[in-house]
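aldehyde dehydrogenase (NAD(+)) structure dump, as promised
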Amino acid sequence: MSTETHLKQHYIGGGWVDSKGGKLHEVINPATEEAASTVVLGTAADVDAAVAAAREAFKSFSQTTREERLELLNRIVEEYKKRAGDLAKSMAAEMGAPVSFAGTAQVGAGIGGFLGTIAALKDFSFTEQHGANKVVYEPIGVVGMITPWNWPLNQIALKVAPALAGGNTMVLKPSEECPGNAVIFAEILDAAGVPPGVFNLVQGDGPTVGHAISAHPGIEMVSFTGSTRAGILVAKAAADTVKRVHQELGGKSPNIVLPDADFEAVLPPTVQGVLVNTGQSCIAPTRILVQKEREAEAVGVIKAMFDGTQVGDPMSEGAHIGPVVNKAQFDKIQGLIQSAIDEGAKLETGGTGLPSNVNRGYYVKPTVFSGVTPEMRIAREEIFGPVATVMAYDTLDQAVEIANDTEYGLSAVVSGDPAKAAEIAPKLRAGMVAVNSWGPGPGAPFGGYKASGNGREGGLFGLKDFMEVKAISGIPA
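structure tokens r here:
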């Protein structure tokens, strides 16, 4: 059967099955505002069936060896590469990532998640001796996974790969905004020979399927990526069963530009993070902090970047950016842009309304504001669109204070001399600090402080977060 058919089913116990009472839902193409695909929205009964399959599969899969899991992960990577084109087209149609970008960065991020886990698993010590105690890492059990639409394959891979590596079984609920890539991913795992019940896919929305996963007594851990608002709901639903809650939530990342930085050299690679993926990245460094005397100079460089960014059809090849994912996101971004204008920020380029070259779709003009102050809404709320805010500081101490003045703590950027950046990095209350780049380096633990979540993803730290720790005392060392 085709991927189109599988969108209307769930993948449970090693096969494609019809939903128990679910209803069909149209996924809207954000470029055309017309239906891109139709997905089934599952029910709590579907989650029950998936958990039962996962619990049965756990009995044997938890006993597999490191070598067996490594072979499985490598087979998945090989099958994944065969479907790269299909994955790119699916994401372009459903969430608007231009097909060139989707086929490189989006698809590549998913492969990267598997390769990082494979490298970590090869060297992982499942047993450690601590004095008279033997400490053992063991599978945690059945893991519930709830993933977002913005970097969909990346977030699926950063959960599924370490869960498999740790010997766990799982139930995945991808975003209903962008479900097609998850269906192809399930087809990839099936082709790679993942044993029945080890990986289960249940399509659906947050209030029904997401809640059922979070609250399910047969699930030992829930791993969620999404908004802080939704993450709080997941944690509350999980509390009654005292399951582990692993979260990667919102961000409001600062970009501290050092006073003596070469703007032409350091701003493009860091400010690019506000444009990549149409600004729909939790680590987008939207708060650009520049010394007051050089604000106009920085604005000139940033404005030129944004004015040079083309907006266009995600199905066309090229380096342009696409629309944001849906009308709700578009309306939210438009409201934030208008709020900045109303609160007295200076609009340098962009603004409200559609770009001049399109007459439909959820396209946002690449927008730059200067004169933004910390109390403005646009300086406090996550934008999730191609909107940069330039903020002025007098001293570096004040820059650090402004950078930390947020409920979030996912990531931070420092632009300028790396040796001077090394002095700033320890002062920033964020889980990741990147110097002269907008994202963390390969293999770095991904996650944040404060309202940005709990736990880490990627590589060794991601693998450990999907394991239980057992202490054995009184046996020979």
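The first strand starts at residue 10 and ends at 12.
lmk if u need the other ones
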